[in-house]
Amino acid sequence: MKKQTEQTLKTEEGFELKFRSRDSSPVTIHIPADTLTSLEKIAAGRDMSVEALLKLYIGQSMRHDLAKLSADRVLEKTAQVLKQHIQSEEEISAILKEIRVETIS
Fold it and tell me: Which residues contact 82 (CB under 8 A, 6 or more apart)?
């Protein structure tokens, strides 16, 4: 495992970016050759390594999935609270549907 370190870089605009490396473990995956070729082209176009691009993709997807899990937990808890105060299942369903529609927009 790599040791944690913190690094500060300045952008061309003068903004400070702080990077904190975290403990990591190596992982081996098998990627189809044509997919790897596509990843290499995309990474080159973004001026980054394939490893960095894969980390970016994993991080974005993971944050998306974690946000959805969190939202689902909030809706479950909301349903539990509504059931304590409202007897009508139809009314509860309508409220939850409205929350879903409002949070997606």
Answer: 92, 95, 96
